[in-house]
Amino acid sequence: MAADTSKPFFPAAPHQALLPSRSAAARASLDGSYWRAFRSSELVSGADFPVTDLTFAPAAAAASSPTLAASWSTSVHLFSGDPLEQLRRISVAGDLAFSPSFRCDGALLAAGDKKGVVRVFRADKPAAGAALRTLRAHAAETRVVRYPVAGGDKLHLFTAGDDALLTYWDVPSETPVFSVPAAHRDYIRGGAASPADHNLFATGSYDRTVKLWDARTGNTGPSLSFSHGELVESVLFLPSGGLLATAGGNVVKIWDVIGGGRLVHSVESHVKTVMALALGKMANTGETRLLSAGIDGYMKSFDFGKLKITHSLRHPQPLLSVACSPCGTVLVAGSAKGKIYMGKRKKKAVDEEDEGKKAGSGEIDWVSPKPEKPVLRPNYYRYFLRAQNEKAKEGDFVIEKPKKVKVAEHDKLLRKFRHKDALVSALIKNNPRNAVAVMEELVARRKLVRCIGNLDTEELGLLLEFLRRNATLPRYARFLLGVANKVLEMREEDIRSDEKLRMHIRNLKRMVGEEIQIQHTLQGIQGMISPMLALATR
């Protein structure tokens, strides 16, 4: 019998039970797989001096191998090679070093110190020693030293420090182009140069504000200012130059500086203070991620395109700084106890491993297709429920749904014009305020007398008991005593014929007598005090 060649040899959709389970690598996200490929090691481990800043030389200067500068104790350490090895140590005259910054061509390196002095060194020659330029303007720690990133500007840099002074320098002449003495009201700890324009740079301070400056306008004031809400530790422009990331407290916020400082997104993925921000390039896709490091020991990778956290790396010590090489193959983090953790990713080995997984061992690797997400259309009920669980962002105009007011039982009965039932309901609850309010409403409607006349024996007993308890209260005495007189006038015969009602009247009479006696006593006391007050006023 000849085979039927009209049907394919393999079925178009094999049975689900025959398909192999999806591997862990296939289930993992692309970002998670990339960052897990880094092999962690300790680049430096020494005395307990915090590694305050880490920075790599620009991509143009690090074409062969990345160059890392780390401010640690009283010096700036330079690392280079593949893998990274210590190249040389630049001493900063016995003071603590802060904020190393490479020039755009990587030839020069500037760093600040604890006394506020900024020094410029040669970074491209291993044997270079003394500082080429010394910039003196600050009276306190210079925590922000930044060369311009865009435009190839090699002549200027800006500095800021704990004295709240902001200075824009002409490096060759060692003179400031302009200075802003009180740029902020507190320590300036964060700064960044714009990748879109070499004249723009941003600063962040412990006064919780972030300011955008333009070197072309000089010291006339910031071009833009907005509040982060927490003490600002780090500021960083995203690659486009239109978005700015700020870190303070346990929050990282993304701002639209082109749109006037509008808050785009807020990330609260850390449990302690976020100390540093950096950009990390993924070598396999070419995409850029925002990296944040905090004193909780975590380094987070944030996809600012999709506005979500994609990966977390845990370190055994609090982190103060983080940096990623321009090629995206080296990741470093500096701790508060003198250790620099390095993650190295070998691109060829990882790519070969990925290709091997894709190729398999010659067998056909069935992968079940992912179900397509149905498109919601107006004929679906879920179409009208979209975005009902979305939380409002800062700056959004929120139209709140009016809260449903819970109406009391007596109010419902009043709305139905069931006046007697409303009065009885208020008396049963035994709330003097509500009961008196119902009686006053019935007086306004001219229905209280009719309601008193229609009460049966038990309901009349409730009213008399309420009058006994509250008729002597100063707040309601005048109104309730008038109601009591009306009840005695209208229901005299019913009260005489019922023992329980007579007992309520006796109790009410006794309470009124006691109140009258108290008032007489108070009047006597007032008579004794009045002459004394008259003498005191003389």
From TrEMBL:
Gene Ontology terms: cellular component: nucleolus
Give the Pfam families listed for this entry.
UTP15_C (PF09384), WD40 (PF00400)
The family database entries (PROSITE patterns) matched by this protein are listed as:
WD_REPEATS_2, WD_REPEATS_REGION
- Segments forming domain U3 small nucleolar RNA-associated protein 15 C-terminal: 390-531
Q: Name one GO biological process term.
A: positive regulation of transcription by RNA polymerase I
Q: Which UniProt keywords apply?
A: Nucleus, Repeat, rRNA processing, WD repeat
Q: Where are the WD repeats?
A: 181-223
Query: Which InterPro entries does this UniProt record tie to the protein?
Result: U3_snoRNA-assocProt_15_C, WD40/YVTN_repeat-like_dom_sf, WD40_repeat_dom_sf, WD40_rpt
- This protein's source sits in the domain of life called Eukaryota
Subcellular location per UniProt equals: Nucleus, Nucleolus
Q: What is its main location?
A: nucleus
Alphabetical list of PANTHER family matching this protein:
U3 SMALL NUCLEOLAR RNA-ASSOCIATED PROTEIN 15 HOMOLOG (PTHR19924:SF26), UTP15 U3 SMALL NUCLEOLAR RNA-ASSOCIATED PROTEIN 15 FAMILY MEMBER (PTHR19924)
By what name is this protein known?
Protein SLOW WALKER 1
Biological source species: Panicum miliaceum
